Amino acid sequence: MKRQFYLVAGLASLALGGIGVLLPLLPTVPFMILAAFCFANSSPRLESWLVEHHVFGHHIKNWRERRAISRRGKWASTVAFAVSCVVALLFVKPPWNLVPLVAAVITGSWIWTRNEPNSEKVPAPAPSQKE
Description:
- The chain has one domain (2-112).
- It has 131 residues and is mainly alpha-helical.
- The chain is built from six helices and no strands.
């Protein structure tokens, strides 16, 4: 029963991530990361396919290894949030037009506080002393 739950949740996350490619406020990569987690508990074949995917695989690996989101991903999410906020402010009646703004501020703040894949500083080697 637990395995089937994770499989259904993984497929639902995969579908929502696919929809997120088209809708700016719905994020894609977080749903793919969630799908990979669910597939890890239900279907090794689907997990492997998603982790090795040429578009989403490196995002999933970065998240699993370092809890990291790339700078490009952070900017992409910020632009998508901005577009969603503008659309909501133009076409949705108050106070509901503020919902995307609140979601963008909360989620965007969280995203920008995550590590970046290449942000680990490697200490410089100590200078050698000649005797």
